[in-house]
Amino acid sequence: MKIIGMFWFYFLALGVSGYAIFAYGFFPLGSLVHPDMKVVYLAHQAGIYTHIFASAVALTLSPFQFTAGLRNRWPQVHRMIGRTYLGVGVALGGLSGLYMSVHAFGGPVAKIGFAGLALCWLFTGVCAFLAIRRGEVQEHRKWVVRNVSLTLAAVTLRIYLPSSMVAGIPFEVAYPVIAWLCWVPNLVVAELLFNKSGRGLLKLKQMRGLA
Predict the structure, then answer these.
(1) Which of 47, 85, 157, 162 sees the fewest Cβ atoms within 10 Å?
(2) Could you give the CA distance from residue 33 to residue 158 in angstroms, rounded to a whole number?
(3) For residue range 198-208, what is the model confidence (pLDDT) as tens digits?
């Protein structure tokens, strides 16, 4: 199951980042999105290009942070990837995402949703960095999982959008909801994962104590 999960992690993260680079690097800006969003993109080209390509960096590098072989055999490479992920992908992607959220299509609900995503992405990134600087490896890993769950909002967004279209939900109705749906459940799953692993560790300690 772990191998299958990592396969899908790599496949979706690299697939969406590749799509973003292809769509925005080889086609006119905004040509593959809703017409109203195209107007916003054209009016804020620096912001959207920075966000797209910084986020693509974060998506591309995120699976490698969870590759145990790389982390254990080449820790320096792991650190270099982590610094690039946080310093380029999350920092630039989050700040540009926060800027673009002000101009997001979908009214106040969408604007606040995407702003919340950007702020949480930046906050969890800072917490992950500070934790490893203090030498708190376990806390660092927890914050990285939270952060990557938010990075994967780019993936879930591109799952929900076509799904809503297939379901016949008008774009104007679906998009503000997806602005929240693309990241809040991801973060909830990350927290549930910590709770489950914490309970398992507690049971293991109790069993060892009885033995």
Answers:
(1) 162
(2) 12
(3) 454 444 344 44
